[in-house]
């Protein structure tokens, strides 16, 4: 028997190693060729990949007739009402486009143009096909108001810019600007998505992915079962998504060397989403941006195989960077101006330094009322979280006509400064309120009035101030059990956690001017609006709210069911919208009333949580209720004094 020739074996490894090296060099060369994508190829592949999104969208429309019937997401009879109310002339044109024959013809032409872009067309033919796609998508968008998604939005942006680039094919600078715009939008989309998820505890804990996969809309039973069985891998995947999206700007690092790998990972991510969540068009819509990313992250100077040298025009990113720096500078100037408005306040603030070291600003209204009122109770108004004292403007003005009325800003809000050292605790909020009350009232009786979180704080302060508190009024108050018993409040709490994680840093960057003026500011009296809006856009208010919410959330989630001891008469006022949208809150307000020795309850019909204070009509109703409550307390106090020899306190 012939023995194996062992001398041949050592030669096998070098051969395999040589083939592996050649294969590796081939892969690197293929990836390197992606980074040197020419302008022409970048445009061609951008429009081809994007055309698939259009083709799929039109095929979905043509094969899903039920979506356009009554009750469907794209039924024009529903969408047209909004257009006819807001833009009647535009709506008449949309009525024509929405005719079944016209819509069908547009979708057929759209599908034909999308397929044609994969053929070797002439420049003019490509311009025509791109124009058909951009125009038809714009014309048909109104019909898909409730059926469109992010894939439709990104595909339209890519299509519009590709059309501009093709129309201006003799001006390379315009084509480069269009490709730069697509590239920057792609990078921004991924990056913003990651940073928006980062504050979410649901994403950081890894619960987000199984929660999404378990839903009816995006669910996949097999994928959910795998995630349930392997929680650590699921958490790792969630963290991987966060890290990848947040780090997406690295496609520009190292002259684009990472771009092909990162785009490959992004494409794989969308393929997984297409399989598990049914988001097939998202893959093609975002993949259509990848050629532009490769083109803009690659070398600026390119040499074609025939020796032709081309130079990419980078005027757009330079312009964007300059505009960004200018906006940042303007934002910082506006931020400083708002801060001056906040610290200046209304001009009549006083300050008190609490035992914790906080300096709190407060206003006293109604000091010059009739002697009868001046010797009566001091009414102290406690605000909700992330709220300004200007919320009380209408009610405080009304009460101050007959009673000494005090508003103050908690530590960190407005002109108040948070200077306490050590770890922050929930009791610190109540401590400050109690000290303010004792400081401004002296020996006079106190009535505490609180809105939202301020209602619960008022109850806790009343328990500490004991007999000096003659009454407590709760206006659409928070209840310490609301996060445990109300699904709506629990969901709102999670959303608030995410918002508060982003707001202070965003406003510190000078983005406050982008924060839309809320409706409640415009409902305030004119003299209070400027200060209120400046506070609302001030980072310190949101930093204070974030600090408060952390300890409030912990306390509410651990609430043991025992309410503060209520010994004074109580009035509970509920906003009508609160009662309608969250019946649990009504039960919780009933519990407040049941825990008091004397209690009255009122419902302000139609008012929401903010309107109950800021709307002129709603605030007048609340003021009337509070005035009657205060009068009753005064009469009861006078009756007690007469029984005790006529002495008045």
UniProtKB/TrEMBL annotation:
It is a multi-pass membrane protein. Residues 1-24 are annotated as: Disordered. It is found in: Endomembrane system. Transmembrane segments: none annotated. The keyword Amino-acid biosynthesis does not apply. InterPro entries: AB_hydrolase_1, AB_hydrolase_fold, AB_hydrolase_sf, HTTM-like. Keywords: Membrane, Transmembrane, Transmembrane helix. GO terms for cellular component: endomembrane system; membrane. The keyword Membrane applies. Residues 1-10 have a biased composition (Basic residues). GO terms for molecular function: catalytic activity. It comes from the Bacteria. Gene3D superfamilies: alpha/beta hydrolase. Residues 80-298 form the HTTM-like domain. PANTHER family: HYDROLASE, PUTATIVE (AFU_ORTHOLOGUE AFUA_2G14860)-RELATED, MONOACYLGLYCEROL LIPASE. This is HTTM-like domain-containing protein. It comes from Sphaerimonospora thailandensis.
């Amino acid at each position: 028997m012939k023995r194996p020739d062992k001398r041949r074996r050592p030669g096998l490894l070098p051969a395999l190693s040589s083939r592996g090296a050649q294969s590796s060099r081939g892969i690197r060369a293929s990836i390197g060729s992606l980074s040197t994508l020419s302008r022409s190829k970048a445009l061609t592949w951008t429009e081809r990949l994007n055309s698939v999104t259009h083709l799929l969208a039109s095929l979905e429309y043509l094969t899903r007739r039920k979506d356009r019937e009554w009750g469907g997401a794209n039924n024009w009879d529903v969408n047209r009402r909004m257009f006819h109310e807001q833009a009647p002339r535009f709506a008449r044109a949309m009525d024509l486009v929405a005719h079944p024959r016209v819509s069908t013809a547009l979708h057929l032409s759209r599908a034909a143009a999308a397929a044609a872009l994969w053929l070797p067309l002439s420049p003019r033919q490509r311009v025509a096909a791109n124009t058909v796609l951009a125009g038809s998508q714009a014309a048909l968008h109104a019909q898909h108001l409730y059926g469109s998604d992010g894939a439709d939005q990104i595909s339209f942006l890519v299509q519009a810019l590709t059309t501009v680039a093709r129309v201006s094919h003799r001006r390379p600078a315009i084509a480069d600007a269009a490709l730069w715009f697509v590239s920057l939008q792609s990078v921004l989309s991924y990056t913003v998505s990651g940073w928006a998820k980062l504050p979410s505890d649901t994403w950081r804990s890894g619960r987000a992915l199984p929660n999404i996969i378990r839903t009816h809309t995006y669910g996949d039973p097999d994928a959910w079962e795998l995630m349930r069985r392997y929680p650590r891998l699921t958490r790792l995947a969630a963290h991987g998504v966060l890290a990848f999206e947040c780090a997406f700007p690295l496609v520009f690092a190292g002259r684009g060397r990472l771009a092909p790998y990162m785009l490959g990972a992004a494409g794989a991510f969308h393929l997984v989403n297409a399989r598990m969540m049914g988001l097939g068009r998202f893959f093609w819509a975002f993949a259509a941006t990848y050629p532009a990313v490769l083109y803009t992250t690659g070398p600026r100077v390119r040499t074609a195989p025939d020796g032709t040298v081309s130079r990419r025009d980078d005027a757009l990113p330079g312009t964007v960077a300059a505009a960004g720096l200018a906006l940042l500078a303007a934002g910082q100037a506006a931020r400083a101006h708002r801060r001056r408005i906040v610290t200046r306040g209304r001009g009549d603030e006083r300050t008190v330094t609490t035992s914790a070291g906080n300096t709190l600003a407060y206003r006293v209204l109604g000091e010059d009322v009739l002697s009868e009122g001046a010797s009566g109770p001091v009414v102290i108004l406690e605000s909700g979280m992330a709220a300004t004292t200007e919320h009380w403007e209408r009610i405080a003005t009304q009460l101050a006509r007959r009673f000494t009325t005090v508003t103050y800003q908690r530590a960190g809000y407005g002109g108040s400064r948070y200077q306490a050292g050590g770890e922050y605790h929930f009791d610190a909020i109540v401590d400050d309120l109690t000290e303010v009350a004792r400081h401004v009232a002296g020996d006079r009786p106190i009535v505490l009035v609180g809105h939202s979180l301020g209602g619960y704080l008022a109850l806790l302060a009343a328990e500490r101030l004991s007999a000096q508190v003659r009454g407590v009024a709760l206006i659409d108050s928070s209840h310490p059990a609301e996060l445990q018993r109300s699904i709506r409040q629990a969901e709102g709490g999670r959303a608030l956690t995410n918002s508060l994680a982003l707001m202070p840093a965003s406003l510190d960057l000078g983005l406050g001017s982008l924060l839309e003026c809320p409706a409640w500011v415009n409902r305030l009296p004119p003299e209070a609006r400027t200060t209120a809006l400046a506070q609302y856009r001030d980072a310190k208010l949101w930093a204070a709210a974030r600090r408060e919410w952390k300890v409030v959330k912990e306390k509410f989630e651990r609430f043991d069911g025992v309410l503060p001891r209520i010994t004074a008469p109580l009035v509970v006022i509920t906003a009508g919208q609160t009662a309608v949208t969250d019946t649990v809150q009504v039960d919780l307000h009933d519990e407040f009333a049941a825990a008091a020795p004397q209690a009255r309850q009122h419902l302000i019909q139609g008012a929401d949580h903010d309107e109950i204070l800021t709307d002129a009509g709603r605030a007048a109703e609340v003021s009337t209720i509070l005035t009657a409550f205060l009068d009753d307390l005064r009469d009861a106090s006078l009756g007690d004094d007469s029984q005790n020899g006529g002495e008045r306190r």
